[in-house]
């Protein structure tokens, strides 16, 4: 996912850039192409959408009118690999009295609709989300040896933008990205990301729609686990309290050795209390998951094989069904305590207001298709017994799913990374499920639902609690509840 040098180019306001590449005077990037509907230009030839974002930057940094810029050499709409047209890099002196260290501020242009002429994003006009409705920013602590801003954050932002364009998943404040690798490719403990609102840039209404600046914050594995088991907003609030973990502007310091737990010993108790009181905001993750089952009967007419059903069903899905499943998986979960209908999403990663807005947009857009639901997806196959296999990293979230979600009458989904299959664990209090206490295991197309009744919930929570510390688990590990005809095998990562 790292950008090759030849795909990146520096533009800079004043002098030769430190990496020796050719530089140009930016003039805030004069774009002189003629544009189609919606994309009228300012006098300087800059599209209005882009000018609105530049204005926000100029208000924040009036003394830096021509910042350093990384720019995609071949623009995305011309077939280039990088979706972000530009990434501006500003120098912030910091204020240690306010717990703000000197740092670099990176700001992206390209996830929102900066052109307004349909070349990348559909033009929607004021009031709607512009493009994906956000741009990325990042604040990186400036090392005393830095002569110029490092370019790896620009490469990281391009990688995140590629993910957004390919998956059409919006990154919202409070969302996390588990990256499993030092963010700059070095030895850093910061190997994951959490999304915050950029408190200085906030949101902007542009002629091409509304957008928010979403700041990428580097976090440790401990902090990632806290976000998953509790929620992103709570962890961000804790991080802001200490200069060590970012201070009020959430400045990422790659050399930081302490997590929020080490920086403040009272944090562990605070997070535990939060999980106990509110549960977790995480409603699903991707997993390597499969299942096999005995299949007693179909609940309504329709085909279907007998014998073992596992994730191979994903391979036998017709292209029409596969389209339907894509629609199902694209739509956000609207509320914590009810499940989407068959024609909506079993597996959005997070519940947040911006996902909910996106979901209602998506549903509006596909409602006609939703009604043309193929009969296979309305057929529920009831299963007598169930054996689930799951990889360790995803299996380690089972205690969270039970304690942080089902105990609070919510659901949790493991979405297969290999095909359109998904498995949703539901509590008795979740409405809209197609399983019931009488038949707790049900399959609709490639979507398996598993109802965990209260007595089994407590037992499973106890039995699986060891998984919460995946480093200590000997795999493969098998857990079985014979009276419920349920077995779970956790296997090693491939």
From TrEMBL:
<feature type="compositionally biased region" description="Basic and acidic residues">
    <location>
        <begin position="1"/>
        <end position="14"/>
    </location>
</feature>
<feature type="compositionally biased region" description="Polar residues">
    <location>
        <begin position="15"/>
        <end position="27"/>
    </location>
</feature>
<dbReference type="GO" id="GO:0005634">
    <property type="term" value="C:nucleus"/>
</dbReference>
<feature type="domain" description="Suppressor of fused-like">
    <location>
        <begin position="80"/>
        <end position="256"/>
    </location>
</feature>
<dbReference type="Pfam" id="PF12470">
    <property type="entry name" value="SUFU_C"/>
</dbReference>
<dbReference type="InterPro" id="IPR020941">
    <property type="entry name" value="SUFU-like_domain"/>
</dbReference>
<dbReference type="InterPro" id="IPR037181">
    <property type="entry name" value="SUFU_N"/>
</dbReference>
<dbReference type="Pfam" id="PF05076">
    <property type="entry name" value="SUFU"/>
</dbReference>
<feature type="region of interest" description="Disordered">
    <location>
        <begin position="1"/>
        <end position="42"/>
    </location>
</feature>
<feature type="domain" description="Suppressor of fused C-terminal">
    <location>
        <begin position="269"/>
        <end position="490"/>
    </location>
</feature>
<dbReference type="InterPro" id="IPR016591">
    <property type="entry name" value="Suppressor_of_fused_euk"/>
</dbReference>
<dbReference type="InterPro" id="IPR007768">
    <property type="entry name" value="Suppressor_of_fused"/>
</dbReference>
<dbReference type="InterPro" id="IPR038489">
    <property type="entry name" value="SUFU_C_sf"/>
</dbReference>
<dbReference type="GO" id="GO:0005737">
    <property type="term" value="C:cytoplasm"/>
</dbReference>
<dbReference type="InterPro" id="IPR024314">
    <property type="entry name" value="SUFU_C"/>
</dbReference>
<protein>
    <submittedName>
        <fullName>Suppressor of fused homolog</fullName>
    </submittedName>
</protein>
């Amino acid at each position: 996912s790292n950008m090759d040098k030849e795909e990146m180019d520096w533009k800079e306001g004043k002098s030769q850039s430190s990496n020796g590449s050719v530089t140009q005077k930016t003039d805030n990037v004069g774009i002189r192409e003629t544009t189609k509907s919606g994309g009228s230009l300012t006098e300087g030839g800059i599209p209005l959408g882009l000018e609105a974002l530049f204005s926000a930057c100029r208000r924040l940094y009036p003394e830096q009118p021509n910042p350093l810029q990384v720019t995609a050499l071949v623009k995305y709409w011309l077939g280039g690999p990088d979706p972000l047209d530009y990434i501006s890099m500003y120098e912030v002196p910091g204020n240690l009295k306010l717990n703000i260290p000197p740092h670099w501020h990176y700001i992206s242009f390209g996830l929102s609709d900066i052109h307004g002429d349909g070349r990348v994003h559909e033009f929607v006009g004021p009031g709607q989300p512009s493009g994906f409705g956000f741009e990325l920013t990042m604040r990186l602590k400036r090392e005393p040896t830095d002569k110029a801003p490092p370019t790896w954050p620009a490469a990281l932002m391009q990688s995140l933008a590629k993910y957004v364009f390919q998956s059409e998943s919006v990154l919202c404040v409070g969302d996390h990205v588990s990256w499993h690798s030092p963010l700059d490719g070095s030895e850093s403990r910061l190997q994951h990301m959490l999304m915050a609102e950029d408190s200085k840039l906030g949101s902007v209404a542009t002629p091409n729609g509304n957008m928010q600046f979403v700041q990428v914050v580097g976090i440790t594995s401990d902090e990632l686990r806290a976000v998953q088991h509790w929620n992103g907003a709570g962890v961000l609030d804790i991080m802001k309290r200490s200069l060590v973990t970012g201070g009020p502007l959430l400045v990422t310091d790659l050399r930081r050795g302490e997590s929020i737990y080490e920086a403040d010993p009272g944090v562990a108790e605070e997070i535990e209390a939060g999980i106990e009181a509110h549960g977790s905001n995480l409603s699903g993750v991707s997993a390597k998951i499969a299942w096999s089952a005995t299949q007693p009967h179909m609940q309504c007419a329709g085909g279907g094989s007998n014998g073992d059903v596992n994730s191979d069903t994903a391979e036998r899905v017709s292209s029409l069904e596969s389209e339907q499943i894509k629609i199902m998986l694209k739509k956000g979960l609207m509320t914590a305590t009810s499940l989407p209908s068959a024609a909506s999403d079993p597996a959005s990663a997070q519940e947040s207001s911006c996902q909910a807005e996106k979901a209602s947009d998506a549903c509006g857009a596909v409602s006609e298709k939703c009604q043309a639901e193929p009969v296979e997806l309305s057929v529920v196959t009831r299963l007598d017994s169930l054996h689930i296999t799951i990889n360790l990293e995803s299996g380690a979230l089972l205690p969270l799913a039970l304690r942080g979600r089902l105990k609070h009458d919510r659901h949790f989904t493991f979405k297969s990374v290999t095909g359109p299959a998904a498995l949703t664990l539901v509590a008795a209090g979740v409405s809209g499920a197609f399983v019931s206490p009488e038949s707790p295991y049900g399959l609709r197309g490639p979507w398996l639902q598993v109802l965990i009744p209260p007595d089994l919930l407590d037992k499973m929570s106890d039995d699986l609690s060891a998984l919460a510390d995946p480093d200590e688990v000997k795999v493969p590990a098998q857990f079985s509840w014979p009276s419920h005809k349920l077995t779970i095998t956790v296997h090693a990562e491939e």
